[in-house]
Amino acid sequence: MGVRDEQKAATREKVLVAARDLFNDVGYEETTIRAIAERAGVSVGSVFTTFASKAEVLSHVMTHRLDELYAEFDRVIPVLRGSTTDRLCSIFAIHYAFETRRVKLFLAHIAASYNPSNEAGVTPYGRNPRLSQMLVDVLAEGVRKGEVRADLDLNLLVDTLKAAYAWNYRMAAAAGGDLPAAEMSAAMDRQIAVIAEGWKPR
């Protein structure tokens, strides 16, 4: 990597760190590109040279955070034990424990996902292929073990689980972003138990 490329990479990292902190501390809507540039110690032009918009900055911030989360999952998934329901509850509990460290940031990510003017560089909530594949794999193993009906659309089940997961963040929003991960996990456990009634073999 040449000097110029190293400088661009360093600027990108500074911008992402500054944006992550501002989105979580003051909120996505309140954060401006100028504020991000000032926090990062770079020019506004440097931000726009790297990212097309604030929404794209948020998208890359979340992708960067998810890389950290899934590095943890790479270590955890091989040793997860229990029923299909148990394993799904564990996966979502780990997600809540991770995201509630910066819950306002995740709420901003969900809200921004509903913006109809998002550019091509923006990856909205729900389009994360790693989470989807992880859930499909757990459900597929459940099918093999006879715990999940083989005639079900696993992708539809995954969409239902992810919708419940995101819905529980309303509790965090109502609490001003200050809600223990354990409470959200407990709610998700109950929702998974209800959904599981529909996938049990008959």
UniProtKB/TrEMBL annotation:
The keyword Zinc does not apply. It comes from the Bacteria. Gene3D superfamilies: Tetracycline Repressor, domain 2. InterPro entries: Homeodomain-like_sf, HTH-type_TetR-like_transc_reg, HTH_TetR, Tet_transcr_reg_TetR-rel_C_sf. Keywords: DNA-binding. The keyword Endoplasmic reticulum does not apply. Residues 32-51 bind DNA. Residues 9-69 form the HTH tetR-type domain. It holds the Pfam family TetR_N. SUPFAM superfamilies: Homeodomain-like (SSF46689), Tetracyclin repressor-like, C-terminal domain (SSF48498). GO terms for molecular function: DNA-binding transcription factor activity; transcription cis-regulatory region binding. This is TetR family transcriptional regulator. It comes from Caulobacter vibrioides (strain NA1000 / CB15N).
